[in-house]
Amino acid sequence: MKMSYRILTINPGSTSTKVGCFKGEELEFSVNVSHDAAKLAEFSNVSDQLPYRKEVILAELEKAGIDLATVDAYVGRGGGLLAVEGGTYEVGQVLLDHAKRGANGIQHPAQLGSQLANEFAKKYGKPAFVVNPPDTDEFIIEARMTGIKGVYRQSHLHALNLKETAIRHSQLNGVKYEDANYIVCHIGGGVSISAHRKGKMIDGNDIVTGDGPMAPTRCGSVPAAQMIRYAYDHPDKKETLSLTTKTGGFVSHLGTSDALDVFNRAEAGDKEAKLIWDTMTYQIIRYIGSMATVLHGQVDGILLGGGMVHNKKLVADITEACSWIAPVSAYPGEFELEAMAAGAIRVLDGVEAVKEYTGVPCWTPNELAE
User: Fold this and answer.
1) Which of 135, 285, 308, 341 could make a disulfide contact with 22, Cβ separation 3.0–4.6 Å?
2) pTM for the whole structure
3) Tens of pLDDT along 124-133?
4) 296: left (phi over 0), alpha (psi -120 to 50) or beta
5) Looking at the domain 6-136+337-369, which fold is it?
């Protein structure tokens, strides 16, 4: 029997933390808690921010009259972990240790999600979870391989929103996510294009290393030899690496990461802005097509999520190019807080088994020798 569990979700960003309180899957309260950038700069690493962020979040929750003693479970963003299969994981000591130090080698505020959830949960004797963390990895082996021995493609995508979009679409259409095949896209500051086969995200572009379509701050895939020559000509390694996630894409071409500004300039007749916008759209379409072949053409739907999906022309252009593959459905914005709450509820309801984070990655190159 389903109950209306009360769930608190916590999603830390670079200068703010999104917090949501849910009664069942209905959002009761949400706030984007701002943090003083100067204060954050005082901390030598991300995890050192924990006491400060916790204090600021508690103040906002108290102001809103949220009684944390009434919360049934706490869910945080699962940054800093090694590769895991998708699902809902209970926050344990190994998970906390890995989140604290950033075991995946990436320092990101998402590491604080599980730590903050645990701080609240242990005080009130309730469980803490992470749901489909950023390092969710369900790739098939062929999707990992490259033409260079010892170099492998990794799963770095908007896993939480991608999988939740697919789950919600399935529920709306009366089918199980585990019985369907989808191409799911997150189109925002980064662009993720992924292939989902029977409930597993088996392929997609690595948004951390510059793989995939161009995005507002990301270069996307670039021919290897040209990228190597560029690196030789620009010896500042940090500057070159920043093209993959911070200074590529719209920023490199047009000096802005504001997608709406670029679109409006393109519509107003700015030829360069139009070329860059159209190029991004073209590359998204191309990657959708590639994922269709990964699924052998057996695609039940093409699902579009993320902030840029609010742009009706972008959706129309993708639909025109790709609807011959499968019906295109748009889900503008993000379901990250909702996805975290839904994952916890599935576990509390017994619909889904909670998973244990062991600290052992779900795939390593050693498996190739087996």
Assistant:
1) 341
2) 0.93
3) 999 999 999 9
4) left
5) Nucleotidyltransferase; domain 5 (3.30.420)
